[in-house]
Structure formats: structure tokens, C-alpha cells
Amino acid sequence: MDFIAILSIFVLACFVGYYVVWSVTPALHTPLMAVTNAISSVIIVGALVASAEAGSLAAKLLGLVAVVFASVNIFGGFAVTERMLAMYKKKERK
Fold first, then answer.
1. Which range of residues forms the domain containing residue 72?
2. Which of 37, 66, 69, 92 shows a CA-CA span of 20 to 30 A to 60?
3. How many domains does the chain have?
4. pLDDT per residue over 41-68, tens digit each?
């Protein structure tokens, strides 16, 4: 595929992602965050496999960067999900 075709697919994916994310109701936010965490874990596995097979140092460093960014995304997603679930818990009365 040439560069213009790949760029077109990327731009269309950005538009679709934007409209999908901003049209989600707040009640569905927590389940979607859990799915996003699962997708990020797949990205980590793919980055580890790709960097293990890489021949150059630059490819291995990019794999490391991908693992770090996906890890931050996973841990941040779990933190946000925990806060969202805490909003629905009953508070203890003293």
C-alpha cells in the first residue's frame, strides 16, 4: 500500500474513534475502560514479540517505548475504572 492510502485509513480511523468515544453515555464508560485495558495488554504482547524479533537497536527501542506507553495506559485505565466504580458504592454511615 502506498503512503496516501495508509494515511487515509489513519485519518478515517481518527474520525470514527472520536465520534464513537464522545457519543458514549456515562453508564457505559466503565465497561469500555475495561475493554480498552484488554486491548492495551494485547499491544504489550505485540510490542514484546516485535522487539524480540527486531534486528536493529532502533526497533528494539521503539518496542520498549510501546511497552511503556501501553503500560501507562493500562494502569491509568484501571485507576479511572476504580474511581468510577467507587462512585456507585454505597457510603458507610457513622
1. 27-87
2. 37
3. 1
4. 787 888 888 788 878 888 888 888 888 8
- Within a domain: 1: no
Residue 80 falls within a domain, yes or no?
A: yes
Residue 12 belongs to a domain: no
Residues 6+ apart with CB under 8 A from 24: 32
36, 39, 44, 72 from 61: Cα distances, Å: 24, 21, 14, 17
Cβ–Cβ under 8 Å, residues 77 and 33: yes
